[in-house]
Specification:
Oligomer: single chain
Low-confidence stretches: 9-37, 91-95, 362-378
Order of helices and strands: HHEHEHHEEEEEHEHEEEHEHEH
CATH topology of the largest domain: Alpha/beta knot
Distance between the termini: 52 Å
Helix content: 25-40%
Number of strands: 13
Number of helices: 10
Strand content: 15-25%
Largest sheet: 6 strands, parallel
CATH architecture of the largest domain: 3-Layer(aba) Sandwich
Shape: globular
Mean pLDDT: 83
Radius of gyration: 21 Å
CATH class of the largest domain: Alpha Beta
Number of domains: 2
Strand order of the largest sheet: 8-2-1-11-9-12
Length: 378
């Protein structure tokens, strides 16, 4: 039990590096002035094994499965997606065993890459995602239509951008491509090629005028306006590292496991699951128990001891099995009335500044062509 508690409340060390295998460019860290100006908002994370892609028998189906996860995360305002390897640290000496393990790790990387690609605004994808086999069919996926996927004519005070190599006249600061006709000029000198969040002046930017902005934390748009600003993706080598490598200083204060052996979700009273940083963990084809058995750090503990709540979100199910991508949607929908954030985001009311539902409507028969063009990898 002592080992379990240590894993659950594991605190990330200051200065520790993130996952070096992550295919996405990291956003820069905000200045102290920007990060302290807003109160921290409560977050929800989900964790699932990348090996669920092994159950899809073609690259198109693998891509579509990952797209379903991304859509579910965006619909329910998920802040972080953790992709873990449910085969854990077990190593088989045989050639077949090594090949199988490499395949599993490849599925985790593929899942993470597709999730990151879909979260990235379209005008930035060519900077961060070179041509790759894993992304071959992403242009056919349903877009996330997330609020931070802004069009050129949207006048919102925050935008995502990439630092360019274009020099400034004064030699100070840098230019950031934020998807407008002109790059934004920021006061900070940053490394070219990294992704940043830029806050723009509140007044309308006139055509042809220089755009001046300030680099802020990726969390600040939601802190200031309540807008959902996408998710981050993290990879974990085992289920124990999902918790021990948490990006939050105090780790996750509410850990929820999902299983058909758990407590009926309908027995949980409304708004009783209070949290600051919550995480919902899903198992793969063989359930969470399989991931625990393969994790040496947990010493094969009883699965219920690892979680604050161990729930069954689909009681009396008609099918013998529920796929992980189905469980994500079912669980997140069921938890809506059970969760209570300690620091809830304010209600967003600037809908006229972001893309509307009608902006994504296409003439009949043109969907496949337009979605293929949105791949934007040339």
């Amino acid at each position: 039990m002592e080992n379990v508690e240590k894993v659950k409340r594991g605190k990330k060390r200051k200065g520790s590096k993130g996952d070096k295998n992550s295919p996405r460019k990291k956003k820069n860290q905000p200045t102290e002035e920007n990060s302290s100006s807003c109160e921290e908002i409560s977050t929800i994370s989900i964790a699932l094994p990348g090996t669920i892609l092994e159950n899809a028998h073609s690259l198109e189906l693998k891509t579509y499965l990952a797209g379903q996860i991304a859509r579910a995360a965006c619909i329910y305002n998920i802040d972080e997606i953790v992709i873990y390897d449910d085969s854990g640290s077990t190593v088989t000496a045989s050639e077949d065993g090594v090949e199988e393990q490499n395949s599993r790790k490849g599925c985790c990387a593929q899942m993470a890459r597709i999730l990151q690609y879909l979260e990235c605004p379209q005008y930035l994808r060519k900077f961060f995602f070179p041509l790759h086999r894993d992304l071959k069919f992403c242009g056919l996926l349903n877009p996330l239509d997330a609020p931070h996927h802004l069009r050129q004519n949207n006048n919102f005070i925050f935008r995502e951008g990439v630092v360019t190599e274009k020099p400034t006249k004064s030699g100070k600061g840098c230019h950031v491509n934020i998807g407008l006709r002109k790059d934004a000029l920021v006061g900070e000198t940053l490394t070219p090629g990294i992704r940043v969040t830029v806050k723009l002046p509140t007044e309308d930017v006139k055509e042809g005028k220089k755009v001046h902005g300030t680099v802020v934390s990726p969390a600040q748009p939601r802190q200031e306006t309540g807008v959902y600003w996408g998710y981050t993706v993290r990879m974990a080598e085992s289920i124990s590292r999902v918790f021990s490598q948490s990006p939050y200083d105090d780790g996750y204060d509410l850990i929820i496991g999902t299983s058909d052996r758990g407590t009926n979700i309908h027995d949980i009273p409304a708004k009783t699951l209070s949290y600051n940083h919550a995480i919902v963990v899903f198992g793969g084809m063989m359930g969470i128990e399989y991931a625990l058995e393969n994790d040496n750090a947990l010493n094969a503990v009883d699965s219920e001891l690892l979680f604050d709540k161990y729930i069954n979100t689909a009681p009396n199910q008609g099918s013998r099995t529920i796929r992980t991508e189905e469980a994500v949607l079912i669980t997140l929908a069921g938890l809506q009335s059970k969760l209570q954030a300690k620091n809830e985001a304010k209600e967003f009311n600037l809908f006229s500044s972001i893309p509307q539902s009608q902006d994504t409507k296409m003439p009949q028969g043109s969907g496949a062509k337009n979605s293929q063009n949105s791949l934007n990898q040339e």
